[in-house]
Write a structure and sequence with these properties.
The structure is a single chain. With 243 residues, this protein is an all-alpha fold. Helices cover 76% and strands 0% of the residues. The chain is built from 8 helices and no strands. Helix 3 packs antiparallel against helix 6. The N terminus is likely disordered.
């Protein structure tokens, strides 16, 4: 006796059979795709590894991003201090501590130990390097002054005025300082080092960052800046958009 299968059921059975046959092929293609790197995004989510290592110039430039954001904190603090607003100067102290610890004592030391000597040895851009070195020294002194004056600025008008002047001088020097490094010096770094030195430099930067700040040191520092931005009321990026 012939068994008649309804059309709907026949289609369902046929679809199931095809899926069963096709499944191994689909899995094989997915495995091959993963081996070829198309599944790299998933690997990153699971392992936490980056697709590519950060190069020395990229590392230094993103640290400049932290510097730039602290300069915005300084500007916000200057506005509050100049208007005699009710403002906790401890926020300035915390901002200056980021400059001291992450910029003066880590980022600039990396430049002085690994970047500047290569240009000096190659005899390239030496005048610029000399100026940058002088500015590093000046910047450390200004940071010390900011840390000294900030706690006293709430009650002493003279100290408050000097603090505002010190922060302004720091901003005035470091905006062109960082811009010149980003556009003139760092892009030429590959011209004065061998490929092996270039790779070793990246590893040295990472090693030093971990020694000083632990794992994810850059991310932790950026998070500190973000908390200060929130406390100072400049965390909403849209407020800087022209109306």
């Amino acid at each position: 006796m012939e068994v008649i299968v309804p059309d709907k059921r026949r289609r369902l059975l046929l679809g199931t059979a095809l899926a069963t046959v096709a499944a191994p092929a689909i899995l094989t293609r997915r495995a091959l795709a993963d081996e070829r790197g198309i599944g790299e995004t998933l690997k990153k989510a699971v392992t936490g590894k980056k697709d590519e290592d950060v190069t020395p110039p990229e590392d230094l430039m993103r640290e400049h991003g932290v510097l730039d954001r602290v300069l915005l904190l300084y500007e916000a603090g200057m506005r509050k201090l100049s208007s005699n607003a009710d403002f906790d100067p401890a926020l300035i102290t915390q901002s200056a501590e980021i400059i001291r610890d992450f910029i003066n004592n880590y980022h600039e030391k990396s430049e002085e130990q690994h970047v500047f000597p290569r240009f000096k040895k190659a005899g390239k851009m030496t005048d610029l390097v000399d100026v940058l070195l002088r500015q590093h020294e000046a910047g450390r002194k200004v940071t010390e002054t900011i840390l000294l004056l900030a706690p006293r600025s709430r009650t002493d008008a003279d100290d408050r005025k000097q603090l505002v002047g010190s922060m302004q001088s720091f901003i005035t020097m470091y905006r062109p300082h960082a811009a010149r490094e980003d556009t003139d010096l760092f892009p030429k770094l590959k011209d004065v080092v061998s490929p092996s030195e270039y790779d070793a430099m990246a590893e040295e930067f990472e090693k030093k960052e971990h020694e000083m700040f632990g794992e994810d040191g850059f991310e932790k520092m950026a998070a500190r800046v973000a908390r200060l931005e929130q406390q100072m009321g400049i965390d909403d990026l849209n407020q800087f958009t022209p109306r």
